[in-house]
Amino acid sequence: MTEVTDADFEAEVIGSDLPVLVQFTAEWCGPCRQLAPVLKDIAFEEGDRLKVVQIDVDRNPRTTISYGVMATPTLLLFRDGEPVRSIVGARPKRRLLADLADAL
């Protein structure tokens, strides 16, 4: 899973040809650590139709604030440069894929 920053968010997420699932995370966030293996599996299995990245909220406040992220983990799904789905909190893989299915 790729880590993005304020500096490359536009190029990696907004400019992506594929839909991008962004995990807003933090080192101190327990649920974020629980979600990481789930997202790695999804990135591997869905890599041909979905890009999965993470951004640290503490080191990248500009992007975090601009998208109104108030809690971690927050997942934002971007399609064509626009956020189309927001999910707050950790979820099992099956439920996360179901939550994303209609937006992909």
Automatic annotation (TrEMBL):
Record keywords, A-Z: Disulfide bond, Electron transport, Redox-active center, Transport
Domain Thioredoxin: 1-104
GO biological process: cell redox homeostasis
GO molecular-function term, one example from the UniProt record: protein-disulfide reductase activity
GO cellular component: a single term: cytosol
Disulfide bonds: 29-32
UniProt keyword annotation of Transmembrane present: no
Matches recorded under SUPFAM superfamilies: Thioredoxin-like
InterPro entries: Thioredoxin (IPR005746), Thioredoxin-like_sf (IPR036249), Thioredoxin_CS (IPR017937), Thioredoxin_domain (IPR013766)
CDD domains, sorted: TRX_family
PROSITE patterns: THIOREDOXIN_1, THIOREDOXIN_2
Name of the protein in question: Thioredoxin
Gene giving rise to this polypeptide: trxA
